[in-house]
Specification:
The protein is 64% helix and 10% strand. The chain is mainly alpha-helical and 302 residues long. The chain has two domains: 201 residues, Alpha-lytic protease prodomain-like; 82 residues, Cation efflux protein, cytoplasmic domain (Alpha-Beta Plaits), CATH 3.30.70.1350. It has a three-stranded mixed sheet with strand order 1-2-3. Strand 1 and strand 2 form a beta hairpin. The two termini are 29 Å apart. The N terminus is likely disordered.
């Protein structure tokens, strides 16, 4: 796998600490929502509930991803982090849509809000989320799973800030629709980020070519290698963060199969995809073929 056990243990510890902080904030915000009647606080608590669940899933995935491969799961649980991030992004998207619908309703039909408790619970939420962000900051770029976790906590922090602003506005002006606007701001923060993360993880699950890798450029470079005559059935996918894989059928000169040169060609091809491109592909599989092999092979793909 792309990360060693020490780094994996550190990531799990960070996720566990962030999860503990989120649960404490969640309990406080549930009480605050009941006490104040604030939609923004209800939404933030609901958002935090999904985030706490997401962090729990992320923690489970971070544990599973380091299990060794087996004959049944040849890549181990490498995809666990992608599945977890996809689930988190989907839930965040649903929460964001609910927030927008309910926020618009509250703009039309405002509800009474108790601003002082709302301010207190908003500050509690902001402080807790900032602490969780500091915990996750060091490993937020490690994989999809940790990116999703960091994104969720960042959205929570911005949501808590919106709650604080709404509480101040209501205190100073008595305009309770500020609570609904704060809820809409939280929704607007959630939707774009969740859509972006969802798109990236779905690309991995659909086995799309990894972002930043141009297969046309890969094909061109392979064709420039000595003795290579054609390349077909070229595929590149991504198992998990930092684990791209590539397969291809490569037609080489016939004499390479008689003079023992195929082993050297294979080394050159694997070194080519591992070193030449911005994405280093260390897991590559090449099938070397004579030109006549294509006459009895199944229909090829690009």
């Amino acid at each position: 796998m792309a990360h060693d056990h020490g780094e994996g243990a550190s990531s799990r510890t960070r996720l566990a600490v962030a999860l503990g902080i989120s649960v404490v904030i969640l309990l406080a915000e549930i009480g605050g929502a009941i006490l104040t009647g604030s939609l923004a606080l209800v939404v933030d608590a609901g958002h935090l509930l999904t985030d706490a669940g997401g962090l729990a899933v992320a923690l489970l995935a971070a544990t599973l991803v380091h299990r060794p491969p087996t004959s049944r799961r040849t890549w181990g649980f490498g995809r666990a982090e992608v599945l977890a991030a996809t689930a988190q992004a989907a839930v965040l998207l649903a929460v964001g849509l609910f927030v927008l619908v309910e926020g618009i309703h509250r703009l039309i039909v405002p509800a009474p809000i108790a601003p002082s408790p709302l301010l207190v619970f908003g500050i509690i939420g902001l402080v807790g989320n900032l602490a969780a962000l500091l915990v996750l900051r060091g490993s937020r770029r490690a994989n999809f799973n940790l990116r999703a976790a960091f994104l969720e906590v960042a959205n929570d922090a911005l949501g808590s800030l919106s709650v604080i602003v709404a509480a101040i506005v209501i205190t100073l002006t008595g305009w309770t629709r500020a609570d609904a606007i704060a809820a809409l701001v939280i929704g607007a923060l959630i939707l774009p980020r969740s859509l972006l993360l969802l798109r990236e993880t779905i690309d991995v699950l659909l086995e799309s070519t990894p972002r930043g890798l141009d297969l046309n450029s890969v094909r061109k470079h392979l064709l420039e290698q000595p003795h290579v005559r054609a390349v077909h059935d070229l595929h590149a996918t991504q198992i998990a963060t930092g684990l791209p894989v590539l397969t291809a059928h490569v037609v080489v000169d016939d004499e390479c199969f008689y003079d023992g040169h195929t082993s050297a060609i294979l080394d050159e091809l694997q070194a080519c995809v591992a070193e030449h491109f911005s994405i280093a592909i260390e897991h590559s599989t090449f099938q070397l073929e004579r030109a006549v092999h294509g006459d009895h092979e199944h229909e090829t793909h690009a």
